[in-house]
Amino acid sequence: MEQHPRSKRPRRRPVFTFILLLAFVLAAGAFALMWRPALAPQQRAPSFDAATVQKGARLAALGTCAACHTADPARPYAGGLALATPFGTVYSTNITPDAQSGIGQWSEEAFTRALRAGVSRDGHLLYPAFPYDHYTRLRHDDIHALYAWFMTRTPLDAPARPNDMRFPFGFRPLVAFWNLLYLDQATWQPDPQQSPAWNRGAYIADALSHCGACHTPRTRLGGTDQRRYLDGGEAEGWYVPALNAHSPSPLPWTREHLASYLRTGIAPGHAVAGGPMQGVVENLRLADDQDIDALATWLHGYLQKAPAQARPAPAALRSGGLASPDAGDPDAARMRLGREVYATNCARCHEAGRTPGSGGALPLQQAIALYDPDPRSLIHIVRGGIEPPDGEPGRWMPGFGAILDDAQTAALAAYLRRYGAQQAPWPEIEDSVRKAKQP
Amino acid sequence: MTTYQLSVNGRGHSVDADPDTPLLYVLRNDLQLNGAKFGCGLGQCGACTVLVGGEAVLSCLMPVAAVGARKVRTVEGLGTADAPGRLQQAFIAEQAAQCGYCIAGMIMRAEALLARKPSPTDAEIRRHMAPNLCRCGTHMRILRAVKRAAGSPEGKA
User: What is the pLDDT of residues B42-87, one digit of tens each?
Assistant: First the structure.
């Protein structure tokens, strides 16, 4: 009787040992994948020449670092901005050279590793809300200049706010698997077929400005879907327009329009930056004009393939008011309400010729948001308006969030889509209106 | 014409108006509350700012039909010449008005901020007040006045 279990044991042992060994190998592999050493703290801040610091300032503007790392303009780069992601809310960190709460103890090696591999000085893995999957392709001299810029800022005491991640994403080592899928540390290669300006623009767009982080759709795992590069994505509940052949713009983008838009947020007679793009433009205005022109050259290469480039803009796009709903419109009641909202609220600025003194608001048949695949951005603009960045002149549009109710907002969106853009109706406009109201 | 029941500065009013009449016209012409001003009529200047349901709105853009049951507050509801409210007192103390045309709107927009955030930072005040314009150029004094009111207890300055 006693022999029975004993006689079984020798037969089990090899399987058991194998499982144990396998578990050990997997654990060791996972550990090697997830563990990164802490790098020694730096005692004294290095010094830099003024030219390097200035170069770093212009690169930081192109990298739009302040868009996330500055929550309060009075405390630049002190972090604290909340970034809502499908995996939880990440708070940007303090990247001033404060020894305790900032990056004051970071050597250039630690700074480089953070940009190239997404690893903090103490060895913990950074969340990819920080776009190191782009910064990884920065040239060494550019990283050096960025380091010089940040290490010479005023140190501010601002401890990192704890992130609010959904289970199991609070466990940072999991990011190692994301890195396996989405972090490509290959160095950036110029395209010999293209001009030097195009290549400069391509490098800035990819390695610094990380345009694709918002303008390319993301996979369910939160990586950019490279097969659909610049195909349109989302940010902060806004639709972020495609910048390639799928661009929704009804008017062709010229290189001059693009340069002006990137530099000032306004492409006269074409588009005004709204939503998350305003923060980008606020950064770009501090960049070199030459670099902005290079970005425009590169972007134009993609936007040239959009259908609007090929045909002359139809006359209806150029001028004239929006039509009244057809009597036979299948959605006639809602269209009539939308038309009424348009006539009482929008037309006095937007309908060309009615009020020449109104500062030339865009005729709405030209507004890109009407041609988006969904109504999110239009609804945000209607509700919140457009504000120029602090201290900048620009077009001001008042928000109508407190003035229009949900049914009116939805009807306006439906009417503008049909009689402004003459596009197929958006489904579920009411749902978008409800979501836009959530803080 | 439709009859609307409005609650303005704590008092009930019955007003006959076309649904698309701007709230500003009703306040000034029907209720003789002339604090809020007509500036541009296009929501570009902020002189007509009043509170509707606690939010700063441009009353030249808001049709009276859109007010509904929300309570309206104008500068007259904050205090009188003899007993000015804390923002009014702070604007006097900082001598923030030159011609004064924009001031009622400025005060009401500031009131919306202080009700929501009693101690705003300088940057928050700047950002919040951005929609309202002053053509005399007293913006710096206006910002100081809002700061002063924010630092004072409710009701006093």
Answer: 898 999 999 999 999 999 999 999 999 999 999 999 999 999 999 9
Q: Which is nearest to B91 in space by CA: B45, B32, B142?
A: B142
pLDDT by position in tens, chain B (length 157): 899 999 999 999 999 999 889 999 999 999 999 999 999 998 989 999 999 999 999 999 999 999 999 999 999 999 999 999 999 999 999 999 999 999 999 999 999 999 999 999 998 899 899 999 999 999 999 999 999 999 876 544 4
Whether residue B42 lies within 8 A of chain A, CB to CB, comes out as: yes
Q: What is the pLDDT of residues A83-138, one digit of tens each?
A: 999 999 999 999 999 999 999 999 999 999 999 999 999 999 999 999 999 999 99
Residue A356 pLDDT > 50: no
Q: What does the block give as tokens for A263?
A: 């530099």
The CATH class, in words, for B2-77 is alpha beta
Distance from CA of B62 to the nearest CA of A (A): 6
Residue extents of the structural domains in chain B: 2-77, 86-150
A339 vs A322: CA distance, rounded Å: 9
Residue of B nearest to A398 (CA): B43
Fold of B86-150: DNA polymerase; domain 1 (1.10.150)
Token pair, residue A326, equals 């057809």
Question: Could you tell me whether strands A164-165 and A88-91 are parallel, antiparallel, or unpaired per DSSP bridges?
Answer: antiparallel
Q: Cα–Cα distance between B148 and B93 in angstroms, integer?
A: 9
| B53 reaches A (C-beta below 8 A) | yes
Flag if B63 and A403 touch (Cβ within 8 Å).
Answer: yes
Q: What is the pLDDT of residues A164-183, one digit of tens each?
A: 999 999 999 999 999 999 99
Question: How many CB pairs lie under 8 A apart between chains A and B?
Answer: 43
Tokens for B130? 């951005």
What DSSP letter does each residue of B88-157 carry, written as one string? HHHHHHTT--SS-TTHHHHHHHHHHHHHH-SS--HHHHHHHHTT---SS--HHHHHHHHHHHHTS-TT--
Please tell me the distance in Å from A241's CA to the nearest CA on chain B.
27
